[in-house]
Amino acid sequence: MKIADYDNFFLGTANLEESKKFYQDKLGLALKFDFSEKGMVAFKVGDNEPAIILKDLNKSPAAKPAIWFKVESVAKSYEEMKEKGIAFSTEPYKIQTGWAVEFTDPSGNLLGLTDYLA
């Protein structure tokens, strides 16, 4: 398994509109996508593909700050990492752009893997 790059950084918000204005107006970040109706808004950071994605805690109350990494294949990486003793908090699941899976590090930080095998 090889981690190819960062994918996205997830942060929760209790007020999506207020946070959206903060990231746009105060930090000056460009909007990457706005799925407010689904409880997510993403912002570009420079010319990087990874984005900061705000998750509406009113729609996803269990959402926690997370870092996702891009891999070639979530299914393959999932099996390899399970063999190394990593306990996953989810099974691989389908997302709009491919597949994802989440786990925690020894300190309880939420991490995830994603691929673009839609």
Structure, explained:
- The structure is a single chain.
- The protein is of the alpha+beta class.
- The protein has a single domain (3-114), classed as 2,3-Dihydroxybiphenyl 1,2-Dioxygenase, domain 1.
- The protein is built from two helices and eight strands.
- The chain has helices at 16-26, 74-83; strands at residues 3-13, 31-35, 40-44, 51-56, 66-71, 93-95, 98-104, 110-114.
- It has an eight-stranded mixed beta sheet.
- A hairpin with a 6-residue loop joins strand 3 and strand 4.
- The chain is globular, with a radius of gyration of 15 Å.
CATH architecture: Roll
Instruction: Just give the CATH class.
Output: Alpha Beta
The third-level CATH topology is 2,3-Dihydroxybiphenyl 1,2-Dioxygenase, domain 1
Count of helical regions: 2
Extended strand count: 8
Q: Going by CATH, what is the homologous superfamily? A: 2,3-Dihydroxybiphenyl 1,2-Dioxygenase, domain 1
Order of helices and strands: EHEEEEHEEE
Name the structural class.
alpha+beta
Strand content: 35-45%
Shape designation:
globular
Q: How does the major sheet shape up? A: 8 strands, mixed
Count of discrete structural domains? 1
